[in-house]
Amino acid sequence: MPQTTDQVLARRRVLLIAFLIGWAAWYGFFVAQQTGLYGNLPPLAGGLAALTGILGWLVFAVAMVKILRFRQRYKDDPEARAALDDELARDQNRRASLFGVYVLIFTQVALVLAGDRLELSAAQGAHVSIFLGVASIMGAALWLDMRE
Amino acid sequence: MGSDAKLLANRIKVWRAEKNLTQEELARRIGVSRKTINTIERGVFVPSTIIALKLAREFGCAVEKVFELVE
Questions:
Q1: Which chain A residue shows the shortest CA-CA distance from B50?
Q2: Which pLDDT tens digits describe chain B residue by residue (71 residues)?
Q3: Is the pLDDT of residue A112 over 50?
Q4: How large is the ipTM?
Q5: CB-count burial class (<10 Å; 0-12, 13-18, 19+) for B12
């Protein structure tokens, strides 16, 4: 039975939410390790953070595989492809990307201003920027998708 | 997008009713998602000229009969 465009979009939304949650948990834990936040946590909180990071990686990996299979499934379906990448979707992606650029600029300014106090290396600052940039772009795209 | 949307009124719902088309059917014919038709119909999203012309062609009328500027 052919799916409606709403069902196809809803399926993609669920996969992207899982991807974002998994990635944020895993990469957030990685950033915490890189910046020294993880080392300052008490043992129980540190264990929970590590568990969250591992579970996040698993969710991220499963979501990634499912997204690839999703793309493959609709590769030869022109109606679904048109619905997944139509004008509204492209406009939402453009606005989400613009929001992400502003978040990145703000993050860079904040890191420069707080540079001495935070004592972050360039690589650590880059990890923070990547985390906030990707999370803000994907989060904004999902928010626009659900709101409109 | 928000301010532009306020300048554009549309009669898509009326035309759909006249042609007995659901949003999903119209979306398939135009090559977009149902959500896109819904956001255009509600005046949330301003479509490109291409989609506006496709809608007019689907309804069998001039584009001005589907969209009009709000003075």
A1: A87
A2: 556 777 889 999 999 999 999 999 999 999 999 999 999 999 999 999 999 999 999 999 999 999 999 87
A3: yes
A4: 0.85
A5: buried
Give the minimum alpha-carbon distance from B39 to chain A in angstroms, rounded to a whole number.
7
What distance in Å separates the CA atoms of residue B52 and residue B20, rounded to the nearest whole number? 19
Residue type, B60: G
For residue B48 the two structure tokens come to 């490109």
Q: Which residues of B touch A82 (CB under 8 A)?
A: 31-32
The single-letter code of the amino acid at A90 is R
Alpha-carbon distance A119 to A66, whole Å?
Answer: 39
pTM of the predicted structure, to 2 decimals: 0.84
Distance from CA of A109 to the nearest CA of B (A): 28
